[in-house]
């Protein structure tokens, strides 16, 4: 596999500047605080076209060669070699929404930076690079005007994308000239992709890995992809959400020494993490998000990213030491229909504590406009149901702790993420008899956002504790009513106003970006506005 010519890092102005001379979807997180840097590079080369419409287990063939291209990669990496764990997560950028989406970075950025992974986003497809109106080239002619993955408009079917992606991997693994990873040496390169991008990788695995897959040490197909060939010599991991099960039943395959297939009950194809990561960046970069009225409230609160984090670490041990990941039970189906309990929650599958000890309907199913079919649904249980299930706080916390412990023991969740689950359960209001009103739920959404946006600020524990106090005060005031509720609202207003002041101070000190600060302030103000 030839290594392309690499140019960069490309100089950038501040994200959000009017010139748009900065990386598309430049992260809002303070990477410097955790010893990371974000850099963008341009790649130039010539790519082959392949005939990939071949039977499973058959290699593709070259149709034509010498097609010039120029694309870009975005690199988020440790600055010091001592922090680097040796593994590059090379994400095929998803373009379903009409623009490049770093779906897997947004899902797992906390684990990526705490564990020393390099994440690289690779722009390989026409829609992401040259699509109208939000392809890179159209979004910023100033920065991306020279990009072209269609060989001057002569190849518009994405048939060059496979070679472009493989050459980008080669530039990471065996660079010549400019080194996109700086002083870091990539010991392992994992090809990863979500949804549509998993579908592209599925073709890459089946038709092209024996031809151009040398830079790849393992694959992760996330919430997408079909049956994969069984004669390759590198590990393949497939992880899907409950949303994906009906269409994936036909693609279920038994585990082998080089293949794993996990399904996460209660999780959706596109979830809250995607919203938290993309919504503020789209707003900053002047792009209208895709929205639609869904039949049911969207986005289950089942953190599938915890399972994704565990998958990455399993893949490292699989490649480095030959240690196979555990198998997992499938979600229970009859035909293609997911089987459910009396509350509407799915049976079987990987069952995270947030799902197995239920406080809501968390489903992968939904209907409605736009992408609602991918968003799943979330409907909190009525207080009478919660009181029946958990008459005491301990009656909720103990089974959560036990299930979190079991998922770590079984290898589906890392201990760091299980610790978060236990912390939230211990400080929850479930089992206290106190109801959670719409205002309380707005505060719970603020709590989730606080963990996400404050992770690199160094103040996440302090500020999330304030939101937890506000949630408890709201619930206790709701239960007591009268003067007690009025006093509780006074406490909440003071607490959240103090929270807003803290966020603004973090921004002033450069520990929090304007984007992150805006999201947190807006969330706090939304909670305050919902109070009587």
Automatic annotation (TrEMBL):
GO terms for molecular function: hydrolase activity. The keyword Hydrolase applies. This is Alpha/beta hydrolase domain-containing protein. Keywords: Hydrolase. Residues 7-420 form the Alpha/beta hydrolase domain. It comes from the Bacteria. InterPro entries: Abhydrolase_dom.
